[in-house]
Amino acid sequence: MTGEATTAVIGVEGMAALIRVLAARGRTVIGPTARDGAIVLDELTDGDELPYGWGVELEAGHYRVRPRADGAAFAHSAGPQSWKTYLHPQRERQWSAARGPDGAWAVTEDDTPPPSYAFLGVRPCDLRAIAVQDRVLAGGPHSDSRYRARRARAFLVAVECTEPGATCFCTSMGAGPAVDGGYDLALTEVVDGGGHRFWARAGSDEGAAVLAELPHLPADESLAAAAGEKVAAAADRMGRSMPEVDLRTLMRETLHADRWNDVAARCLTCGNCTMACPTCFCTSAEDVTDLTGDHAERWRRWESCFDLEFSHLPGGPVRASGRSRYRQWATHKLGTWFDQFDSSGCVGCGRCIVWCPVGIDITEEAHALNAERAAGGPPGESTA
User: Which of 92, 112, 313, 326 lies 20 to 30 angstroms, CA to CA, from 259?
Assistant: First the structure.
């Protein structure tokens, strides 16, 4: 790392300056803002657009914004979007083809240069989710060149969590509430009798250079201690938890559990959980053409394993029942993801709980499966 500032204290004016500095470096700044009854991710051009004074109220199938008395900008839990929206877009064109006067087709790959993003306000759970998607989409022999290009140009400003929501369980997944690397800048927000300020640390050379350009004070040990206490307290206030067992083994040993029938009776197989999840990565190809038949395009779009057509073969869908499709999602997320990618596919953000229309809670289901296993429920393997 360079000799630039690596730790510092910045104020609210420093946050506004951070957005300006990142924009001056040619980056599109994306961060949280309060709009339309939610805290959403959008392009930011000014510090006033951050959701100062807004928090959230979360429960299974329930999300509401609420005013805060302390004016904090980042005292809210994960919203409806994740950074996957920008690194692995919901829909993007892969190529287009045009038929010339001689009838021959010319195919052109869509190689539009990706934006240079700066993500401001990345939660520790989402920071882990980006690392998971890095492993899935940028690692291995079949990596996604478009994802790699977007990811290589992204600048990450992480914000440690000091106020978890009722549906958060990142501590169970080892994904928060503190950050442990993978960022360019890390911030911890502290609002107390000493004022409203942020303990900032650089995690890369560019992060240090950006920090040096901001109005700041030298690192304050007392502020660092206060920030650490707030993050540690957040770890003790998680609204949810996973059972303290090997989840990979639990999923493998409960494939026949009666609990799958219970959740299937409630699940709408709408796929909201996969759309909101920051690590789900499945896509489908969609070919379109104009009315003349002289122009065609291929688009890639998000797909969900809850879709009946997701695993359709000539003989029909592989997973015809809602039971089998929910079980596929849960066992992959918590179990067989380890076999493919050496980690869990869940980071404990709780989005799948909040945005499920019927309030299905993956932590509740895991506890129920564990209780059924402990009571001697049916083990074994099944493809039903």
Answer: 313
Tell me if residue 319 falls in helix, strand or coil: coil
Tell me which residue of 225, 235, 223 sits closest to 170, measured CA to CA: 235
Tell me the per-residue pLDDT of 54-79, one tens digit each, with 9 for 90 and over. 999 999 999 999 999 999 999 999 88
pTM, entire model: 0.92
Taking residues 271-282, what's their average pLDDT?
96
If asked whether residues 295 and 219 sit together in one domain, one would say no
CA angle 28–187–204, rounded 5-degree value: 65
Rounded to 10°, the helix 205-213/12-24 angle is 120
Instruction: Indicate whether 225 and 254 sit together in one domain.
Output: no
- List CB contacts of 91: < 8 A, sequence separation 6 or more: 299, 300, 301, 302
Question: Up-side HSE of residue 297: CA atoms within 13 Å toward CB?
Answer: 11
Domain that holds residue 40: 7-235
In a shared domain, residues 127 and 221 = yes
Cα angle, residue 38 at apex, residues 36 and 39 outer, rounded to 5° = 120
Tell me if 274 sits within 8 A of 280, measured CB to CB. yes
